[in-house]
Please model this.
Amino acid sequence: MAAVGAAVDLSVAGGMAVVSPVSGEAVATLRTHTPAEVDAAIDVAAEAFRAWRMVPPPRRGELVRLFAEELRAAKEDLGRMVSIEAGKSPSEGLGEVQEMIDICDFAVGLSRQLYGLTIASERPGHRMMETWHPLGVVGLITAFNFPCAPWCWNAALALVCGDPVVWKPSEKTPLTALACQAVLDRAIARFGSDAPAGLSQVLVGGPEVGEALVDSPKVALISATGSTRMGRIVGPRVAARFGKCILELGGNNAGIVCPSADLDMALRAIAFGAMGTAGQRCTTMRRLFVHASVYDTVVPALKKAYASVTVGNPLETDALVGPLIDGRAYESMGEALEEARSLGGTVHGGARAEVGGASAYYVHPALVEMPAQEGPVLRETFAPILYVMKYTDLDAAIEAHNAVGGGLSSSIFTTDMREMETFLSARGSDCGIANVNIGTSGAEIGGAFGGEKETGGGRESGSDAWRAYMRRATNTINYSSALPLAQGVVFDIG
Ligand code: UN1
Model:
């Protein structure tokens, strides 16, 4: 399994440059894997599957338990790597590694709970049961903003389910991926020889590597995290070969602040949800509907929070807001704000912050009061922009809340039980995550993570997400001595 990772030379001229958003400067150059190496990696994984599927699941869980131990030991280093490559604050970098540890702990327990049902048969002397078998090679495609946790949400489950993994990380964050693989290799070395070569591999390269995984009939499941644009390409291509897919795509997430809300609690949650990770989470809060009766309290308080938030270098400070990933992200933010202004929006904040050099892009988060939900409010812009709108009727606010793509995460702030239950009901939030009195981001791994709209409904991590990494067989066993009726057919069995 180390063979492919070890083929990466960290100082190859003409290779793929890895730029840290913290400084805007290159921190490494990697040789990318050739198409032949990508094919070879998939072949090795397919071979590994034949062996790994026969290792008893609790034993497979033991590997993930050892991996969690290694992750605990490497937590500081990995967290710092996340800060260097993705520009996250130290606490967010460490938080991401903690999510990896959490899903490993979850998966260890799961390795003893891959239950199937026993089903009452309508036929006398028959028993039916459901068996869950390993699925095959899992291809993972991940995004820059969470450079390690989503890989682990998938990999920990895939490994206990009996599936090898081949990972294509974002071109922007391959070093974190190689570091994760190195940590897993330590666990594999301790585990023993029943871990086949090729159980986990990292492939460094551009879209062509992802395409090779997507199109390979040897890859049973593609689990991809990224933009809806990427999902629209991946989904149909995997479907065309009848492969399985988990898509974890964008979110245009919103909160609703009701008249009875605990405003202190709401403001803290909104500030963190909208500004944390510089708005570069799929769970970032991007829209806010505030009841007219509290609008003039909430919006000035938010303006104050926005004006005072610290924007800074994540390697030197614990500022809540670090850099945008690159110049393109900065441009998209500017375009969205310009469009909002042209539609009558009032923009507070949003200017470039004087941190880092000319090629680093730090911004002050933007709060935008909008007269209506239109233009950029309907889109996910991967930057810290929160659009605020006033409402008077909760049903209308819920309608507006649901009138966008995404459908990933949502929050209501209320102490009124009717409002809360309405938001959580069938006519409430249409998102995969519907929260009460907490923000949209920070989902725990215990809940299946994913959205319900413009995401393919994919779910990874907790709950019963493991089923996607396995195949189900229904077995019928006839233990009766009565011969089945086979009208008109004569059997001669001597
Ligand atoms: C993402 O933004 O891609 O809920 C994932 C959260 C994190 C996961 C976000 N646990 O914000």
